[in-house]
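Write out the 3D structure for:
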Amino acid sequence: MSLTEEQAAQLLDFEQASIDVSVLDTIVRFFYESRPGCPEQKMAEQIMKQFQEHPDAWMRASQILQESQYPSTKYFALNILKDVIRTKWKLLPEEQTEGIRNFIVSMTIEASKDFESLQENRVLLSKLNAVLVQILKQQWPQQWPSFITDIVGASRTSEPLCQNNLEILKLLSEEIFDYSKGQIVQVKAQHLKDALCQEFGPIYELCEFVLENAGEPTLINQALQTMLRFLSWIPIGYVFETNLINLLVTRFLNVPIFRNSTLECLAEIAALPGDAVADIPMDDLQSIQAKQLQLLQGALKQLVEMLPPSTDVAGMWHTASMEEQGFIRMLALFLTSWLKQHGQLLEADPSLRETHDICMNYALMISTVADKELFKIMLEYWSTLAGSLYSEATACGTGMFTPNHEPKYRYDLYHDLLSTVRSVIISQMPKPEEVLIVEVDGEPVREFAKDTDTIELYKAVRITLVYLTHLDPYDTNRIMRDMLARIVDGSQYSWHNLNTLCWAIGSISGTMSVDDEKKFLVQVIRELLGLCEARRGKNHKAVIAANIMYVVGQYPRFLRMHWKFLKTVVNKLFEFMHEEHDGVQDMACDTFIKIATKCKQMFVMQQLGETKPFVIEIIDNMGRTTQDLTQQQIQTFFKAVGHMISAQTDPEQQTALVQHLMALPNSMWSRTMQAVQEQPDQLMDQATLKQLVHFFRCNYAVASTVSAAFMVQLQHIFNDSMLLYRTMSQHISSAIAQSGESVTKQPLVRTMRAVRRDILRVLEVLYQRADTSQEELEALTPTLLEHVLSDYSETVPQSRESTVLSVVAECVSRLGQSLLPAMGDIFQHLFEPTVDMIKEDFETFPEFRRPFFAWLGAVVNCTTDVFSDLSPEQFKTVLDAIIWGCRHPQRDVAECSLKVLRNLMTAAGSATFKQLFFQNFFLEVLQQILLIATDPQYAANMVQHTALLSQMFFLVENGTIDVPLQEGQTSANVDVVRSFVGSLLKENFPHFADEQVSVIVDGFFAYDQSPGEFKNHLRDLIVQAKEMASGDLGDLFLTERADQLKEAQERKMKRLAAIPGMLNPHSDVSKDKNGIMSPGFSS
C-alpha cells in the first residue's frame, strides 16, 4: 500500500477526534519490513518519531490497540503509553488514570481468556503486563490498595488468566527488588518492598494452590518461575514453615517438564545464607537446618533415580538436548549452593557420610563435562572448598600435608576426593595469557586476539590449583608426572593434553618446597625436551616448544637458584628465536623478557666458572641472535637486556653496559645522520625513516628499564634528535600545505610522524621515571620546550602530535616549581591551539583530548599561579574547556576533566586567585556540573560527579570558601548556595514542588561527607527529574526523607565536631532549646 502526504499529515493532526489506524499500520510496516535505509523506511521512521513525540500521542493508544491489525503497531502504542505512565502519570486527571488502568486491565484479561489466546498473544501480553506494572509502581498501594486482593481473586476464576497474573506478579517483584535502583526514589522503593512483603500471604496461597491443584503444565511452570523470583526476599517462614519444600521435591522434581524450574527454586532455597536467620532463636535455627537437610536428602533420593551415579554425563553431554543440558546446569547450581552454605552439616555428622559421598560423586561427575559455563560453576565450589581447607590447615599450624604427616580436621574427609579433583582440573586447564600458540582446525597458529573470558577463567583455575597443591603437593606432583609419562610414551599424546598439563604445571610455581620444585621441574623439562626431539614435524615441535617456554618462564625462583640451568634455558630460547613457525619467535621473546625481568641479577653477576657476566655475552652475540627477528621482536629483546642492566648496582658499570648495548643501533644512527647531512633528501626515503623509527623504539625500550643510566645515551643523540624533530615537522607541514589534509594518510608522512612521536616517547618515559637525574632533566628541558612548543603552536593542526601534550604533562609533573618561569609560555603555546582543535565537536582529533586534560591536570597540581595572571575572561575560557571535557561522551576524557576540576577546587582554597575563582565562577561551575550530573546520558560518571559535587557543597558548608560568592552579597554562603541551587532546580525541572526542592538541597549538604549516600541522593534526583509531578507528592515521602536528612546532618556534625579543628572556628553558632551549642557556617 502506498502512502500519500495527505494521509501522513492527517495522522499527525491531533486536532481530529480519531485517526485512520490502517494508515499507521502501513507506516509501521514500512519501518519494520522495508529494506534498511530505503526512502520508505526513512519516511516511516520520521513520521513515527513525530507521532511518538507529540504530547497527546498517548490519547490515540486505546484506538490503535482496538483497531490495529498489525502487531508492531500495537507495541508502538503501548510503548507510548508506557512512557507517559513513567513520566507524566501524576499530571493526568484521576478519571484519565482510572480509564487507562481499566483499559489495560480489560485488554490483558481479554488476551488471556484461554490458553490458545495466551499463546497467540504472548508478545502483546508481555507488553501489556509491562505497562500494567508501570501503573502499579505509580498507584499501588496508595491509589490501588486492593490490587493484590483483586489479582489473586481473579486468578482463581480461570487457569489462563491465573497464568498471566502470575507473570504480572513476577514482573512486579523484579521491578521492585531487582531493578528499582535508579528507577524509583529510594524511600518509595523501600515502601513498595515493605508493602509486597506485608501482602505476600495471599500471593503465596495462590502459588501453593496452583502447585497443588493445577493440571496445565504451562501454568505450573509459571507458578514455579514466579515463586523463584520471590524466594530471595520473602519472609523465611514461607519457605521453611510451609509445605513448599515438600511440594517441590516430591511432586515436581522427578517430572521432566518441571525439573529444571524446580531445581532453580531449590537452588535458591539452598543458597539462603546463615545470616538470613541469625536473629531467630536457636531452636528455630536448628529446625531450619533440619529442613535444609531434608531438602537435600529428598532431592538426592529423586536424583539417584533420574540420574544414576554411574551415568557418563561427560560422554552424553554433546548429544543431550538443551533441556537435558539445562538440567545438569541447574543440578550443578543446586549442589554447589547447598554445599557452600550448609556443607558443614554433612561434615559434622558421621551418619550423613553416605549423603555427603553422593553429593561429591555428583559434583565430580559434573566437573568432568567439557562445557565452560558448567566448569565455572563447579570451579567456584572447588575453589571455596580448597580455600577453606587451606585456611583451616594454616590456622591450626599443620601447614602443608606431607606423606609422613597425618592430615587432620576436615581434610580427612576430602583427601581421596581432592586427588580426583586435581586430575579433573588439570585436564581442563584454560590457556594462560602468555601462551601465543593455539590450535585451530587441527593446526597450531599464532593467536592475535586475546580471549578475556578464558584469561579470567585461567586465573580462577590457577587459584584453585594452588590451594589444592598446598594441601598435598606430593599428590599434585604425582598426578602431573603420571600424565606427562602417558603423553611422552604416546598413549595419551595430543596437543590438547600436552597444553593443559603444561599450563597447569606453570600455574603452580612457588607452591612446592625448593628441593621438590627442583626435582619436579628438572624432570618435566627433560621429558619435554626429549619429546621435542622424538616428535617429527614442525607443528609438533612448535607446540612442544611453546609449552617448554611457558613452563620455564613460570619458575623464576628455580632459575635464579640454578645458574647453569638458567643459561641453558636462555640459549634454548635463542635457538627458538630462529624458528620460523608462526608464534614461536614471539613466545621466545616474551619468555626471554619474562625471565630477564624476574632473574635480572643473575645476568649481571660473574658466575662461577664464567669469564664475564652473561649479559655481556648476550650483547656481544645480539646481532646473530636477533637476525631472524622482526623489528618489534628486536625491540622486545632490547627491553629484556635493559631489565638485566637495571640490576647492575654500580652506576659506572651500568652506564658502560648501556653504551655497549646501544653501540649497534648508534652506529646505524651515526651513519644515517652523516648521510642526511650529505644528502638531506635521505629523510624523504621510506626505508631510512623506518630505520629511524626502529632506532628510537629501541631507545625507548632501554630507557623505560634503565632510565638514569640512559642519560648518557640521550645526551649522545639529544641535539640531533631535536633537529630531526624540527625537520620532520617542516616536511609534514610542507606536504599538508601542498597536498591537503589527505596527505597525512600516506605512508611516507605517517612514518615521518612516527619518527617524531617516538622521539617524544623516549623523553616522556625519562620524565616519568623517578630515578632519572633531576639536574640532567632540567638541563635538557629548555631545548626540548624551545623545539616542541613553538612547533606545536605554529604548525597546522593536522601536523601536531598529541604526544607533545603528554611529554609536557610529565615534564610539569616531574620538574614542578623549577618550571614556574616557563609555565606561562607553556600555557600560551599549548592551551589555545589545542582548544581550537577540539572545541567544535566531540569527534575530531580524538587522540588529543585525554592528553590535553592530563596536561591541564599536571599544571593545576604543580601550580595555580599561572591562573593568577589571567583575566576573568581568559580564566573563564579555561573553565569552559574543563567543563566541556566533563560533558565528553568518551568516559576517560570526562573522568580526567572532572578530576582536574576537583583538584582545581582544592587548590583554589589556598591560592592567590581564590577571590577570582570563587566569586566569579564557583556558582557557574556548580550549575554546570549539576546539570551534567542530572543528565542521564552522563550517568556512567556518577561516581566522579558525586565526588566533585560533595566536595563543592562541603567547601561552602565548612567555611573553606571565605570570600563572598556574589557581589553585594549580605547572607551567608550556605544560604546563597541553597537559594541558587533551589532556583536552578526549579528552572530546569519546573514540575518540582517547593517541598521537593527543599529536601533535595538539604540532602546535598547532609550527605556531602558520605559519598555513597550522596550518590543515592543524586540518583533519586535523576529519577524525580523524569517524572512530571502534580500537587500530590505523597509517593515521594518527603516528610520521611526530610527526617532522614536531619538525622544524617546530625550524625555528620557530631562526627566532625569530634575531630579538633575540623569545624570552622569563625562559624556562627546557635543554641538549641536545651542550650547546647550547634555549629553554623557563614562566609
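Strands lie at 437-440, 443-446, 1069-1071, 1077-1079.
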